[in-house]
Amino acid sequence: MGKESAIPVENESGSPTMRTAETLLRILPMALCVAALVIMLKDSETTDYGSLSYSDLGAFRYLVHASGVCAGYSLLSAVVAAVPRPSTMSRAWAFFLLDQLLTYIILAAASISTEVVFLAYKGDVSITWSQTCGSYGGFCRKATASIAITFVVTLCYVGLSLISSYRLFSKYDAPIAYTNKGVEAAIFQSS
Amino acid sequence: MGKESAIPVENESGSPTMRTAETLLRILPMALCVAALVIMLKDSETTDYGSLSYSDLGAFRYLVHASGVCAGYSLLSAVVAAVPRPSTMSRAWAFFLLDQLLTYIILAAASISTEVVFLAYKGDVSITWSQTCGSYGGFCRKATASIAITFVVTLCYVGLSLISSYRLFSKYDAPIAYTNKGVEAAIFQSS
User: Fold this and answer.
1) Which domain, by its residues, includes A143?
2) Helix axes A89-122, A137-169, angle to 10 degrees
3) Which H, E and C letters describe chain A, residue by residue?
4) Are strands B44-47 and B50-53 parallel, antiparallel or unpaired?
């Protein structure tokens, strides 16, 4: 039994096709994160009413930071995933936890920025928040583009966390199955 | 090989302790969702400046809907998890996908409501959004309480999606391991 559970751990990342696919799926959100980051960083507009920059809004500052962290992690994890080496349990756990965490961070960034752009377009009469996009149309359009890209990144990360949870948990046996396999092994040996 | 993979699927939800633990972990977010829902629904304040209700803000309306859906799903899934019956692959996939979806929905609801309360407390000078909580202090405190509960629900769902992904993917073998097992089975049979 010991040997049987050791073999899949060593060979798990062996398929070159699967490794290439995962590496590409990690490089794609990196490129998208950089794009979202650059668009948001360059997003400022000066009109007759004054000037507005992304840094005036907390949600957009958070989006920039989240995109930066996401781009960095995507690059690092792509490099790690590309190198053919034995996959260990701790590496699978690290990928799983970090992928999950990044998914939540980037989803939160996309959500709160969407809410701010929504409020900036529609305003809110009951709490007297003005329709900022009426004055800063170009600013709002650029912000919307950046947020749309961030949502695509979120989708990539949902897929990546699915893959990494498959990679991690397929190394474990099903909860009760372990006992059954022991019994079957005993039957095999006695026959 | 066919029998070996069939047995764990049938017995997987067999442990009564594990079943009770999962049922309780699904009832807890249900209770919390109902609490967050009720607090938010009763959240309205009338002052000298006018009156403000949760329904005036899109983010809070979304939080109410998300909490309602989450409470309903938590109840249903607790009932399904409590009944001792053979766990099938399709049931494991349904739990996995729905748990993931609910985690993302409830996280988004908590995030955007946090952003709105943050803006209501701090305001934003550059886009002339006023500090609404200066006038409606009680409203903001209740909203904050509801959001805090929603974040606890999010944590519960992060745990639940971890459990359901373990339950699903531990039924699969590791990617390459399948071939190795086939080889081992052949050796077993020939000996």
Assistant:
1) 2-186
2) 160
3) CHHHHHHHHHHCCCCHHHHHHHHHHHHHHHHHHHHHHHHHHCCEEEECCEEEEHHHCHHHHHHHHHHHHHHHHHHHHHHHHHCCCCCCHHHHHHHHHHHHHHHHHHHHHHHHHHHHHHHHHHCECCCCECCHHHCCHHHHHHHHHHHHHHHHHHHHHHHHHHHHHHHHHCCCCCCCHHHHHHHHHHHHHHC
4) antiparallel
Identify whether A28 is part of a domain: yes
- Longest Cα–Cα distance of chain B, Å, equals 89
Q: What angle do CA A128, A130, A134 make, to 5 degrees?
A: 160
Which pLDDT tens digit goes with each residue over B37-58? 999 999 988 888 788 999 999 9
Q: Is residue A147 part of a domain?
A: yes
B174 Cβ under 8 Å from any chain A Cβ: yes
| Residues B120 and A127: beta-carbon distance below 8 Å | yes
A57-104: pLDDT as tens digits: 999 999 999 999 999 999 999 999 888 777 788 888 899 999 999 999
How many domains does chain A divide into? 1
Within 8 A of A91 by CB-CB distance, chain B residues are none
In one-letter notation, the amino acid at residue B109 is A
pLDDT digits (tens, 9 = 90+) for B78-94: 998 888 777 788 888 89
Interface of B with A in 106-165 (CB under 8 A): 107-108, 111-112, 114-116, 118-120, 122, 124, 126-130, 132, 158, 165
Q: Which two tokens stand for residue A122?
A: 């529609």
* Cα distance between residue A64 and residue A72, in whole Å: 12
Integer Cα distance of B151 and B107 in angstroms? 7
**How far is A139 from chain B, CA to nearest CA, in Å?**
12
Asked if residue A191 is part of any domain, the answer here is no
Contact B8 A130 (CB under 8 A): no
Task: Report the predicted TM-score, pTM, of the whole model to 2 decimal places.
Answer: 0.82
Q: Which of B114, B157, B130 is nearest to B28 (CA)?
A: B157
